[in-house]
Amino acid sequence: MNHKPLKLIEDLETAVAPARVLTDSDSLQQYGRDWTRFHTPAPLAIVLPSSVEEVQAVVRFARENQIGLVPSGGRTGLSASAVATNGEIVVAFDRMKKISNFNPIDRTVVCEPGVITEQLQQFAEEKDLFYPVDFASSGSSQIGGNIATNAGGIKVIRYGMTRDWVVGLKVVTGTGELLELNGGLVKNNTGYDLRQLFIGGEGTLGFIVEATMKLTRPPENLTALMLGAEDMNGVMSILKAFQQKVDLTAFEFFSEQALSRVVEHSQVQRPFDTPTPFYALLEFENTSEAISDTVMELFEHCMEQGWVLDGVMSQSISQLQNLWACREFISETITRWTPYKNDISVVVSKVPEFLAEIDNVVNREYPEFEIIWFGHIGDGNLHLNILKPDSLSTEEFLQKCNHVSKWVFEIVQEYVGSISAEHGVGLLKKDYLTYTRSEAEIDLMRGIKKVFDPDGIMNPGKIFD
């Protein structure tokens, strides 16, 4: 596509108002990428719409001029889904951040796409309710982006993914058409549920401009238990033992390498003196003496079996937060080493041998790489983070990690797992999509995209070419 940038920008300003369009170099860099740092942002312009009508105007302009559009939320994505590398217009939803239409009977609330996750959580708390989808980036991630990537996080074992909390959507398709999907209904068996296509669609079918979100009752007296284990088989035995008798709200794991980095580079203290190869972080509602007794009995049982080497249980909100900091500070802490991230999953029962096989391959082929493991073990989601050695340039490191990914994804395919459990496909994973999806599935997805986005302008090049 050959464009005259200055004329296009002038026409764009006419379509949506000059104050909504940014073209300075700082803005192009800031809005042109997400948390990934493996692609150079090169957008044509940034547009910050403040209404559905302005979003529609941008889409119609882009369609008329055959320019790609890239959605931008909190820019916390980890698969380069929100990266603009080829002269696209970035549509950033920072101005669309209203919460409205709270319904205490239905326990629903309407959010514009720019609502920050933490903003919705605080709103729910003010209404004595709870929005359970939570992760380390909740202070900056936006609801629209969460929905577009079907974000998961730390509470999936109890509350499920973002998909489970979206009861209605308004979306603008690649033709500029506004669709209202499901209308907040709990039951609606009237053919295809198009809402589900946009959840996890990474903006490739259209842009989410409004979401009706479901809330629930708040958990009571949340308590965390941090346990140190010798190996992953021990972690899985702990999970099995506790799940049989306690309703867990979270079950996370991380390695000693992950904890040591957090302790070294933050104010977080070790939960107990004994270093162990792996740690399990359990959370539950401690609402009765009977539950407390059961938890202590299970803890003692796990110690007797040799699954647990040491452990500690929170006795206050501050202690609960301190234990969670050991897990939630990992991503932020290791960012300085430009980590190459693999977000993979298998069924929960296969996790130990799956992790061991991947660990062996990476350590054998690249012994100089430091591997940081953590993840949502209760739902089979593992985060493999490879830290960049100082001796390698980013380009050399990425090239080597691409080899690692191929080996890792071959193992994922062998275990019938997913190459992207919760981060999406974006640019980073699209070359490996066939390890999880068949060619027939990918062809059908391309056909679906063509229906909603006939000109291919909505987040082009993401998921597949």
TrEMBL record:
This is FAD-binding oxidoreductase. The keyword Flavoprotein applies. Keywords: FAD, Flavoprotein, Oxidoreductase. Its cofactor is FAD. Residues 39-218 form the FAD-binding PCMH-type domain. Pfam families: FAD-oxidase_C, FAD_binding_4. Belongs to the FAD-binding oxidoreductase/transferase type 4 family. Gene3D superfamilies: 3.30.465.10, 3.30.70.2190, 3.30.70.2740, Uridine Diphospho-n-acetylenolpyruvylglucosamine Reductase, domain 2, Vanillyl-alcohol Oxidase, Chain A, domain 4. InterPro entries: FAD-bd_oxidored_4_C, FAD-bd_PCMH, FAD-bd_PCMH-like_sf, FAD-bd_PCMH_sub1, FAD-bd_PCMH_sub2, FAD-linked_Oxase-like_C, FAD-oxidored/transferase_4, Oxid_FAD_bind_N. PROSITE patterns: FAD_PCMH. The keyword Flavoprotein applies.
